[in-house]
């Protein structure tokens, strides 16, 4: 399993509308995200519009390719692109991935195997 975290910047003047557009997301888009193999997908919005996203997948490249080819995802991302600052391309394809520096489960497993 791969854990993916990313960051985007939402335009501050569009924060309320951005939140409203995700309450709820189109049912067909939810189905496409799941069909792409992404799960445990969450978005977190900080003050000022910094958006952090997280999801898990078995094959991120395949999930990206699936969504890139999806007509539903193309329509959704076209509508969402205006919400973001300095974004070149579709939000789902241009988000900046974050570097994972810590995972509790992985370190506990490593510590247990070292102790054995």
From TrEMBL:
SUPFAM superfamilies: Dimeric alpha+beta barrel. InterPro entries: Dimeric_a/b-barrel (IPR011008), Rham/fucose_mutarotase (IPR008000). Pfam families: rhaM (PF05336). Coiled coil: none annotated. This is L-rhamnose mutarotase. It comes from Microbacterium bandirmense.
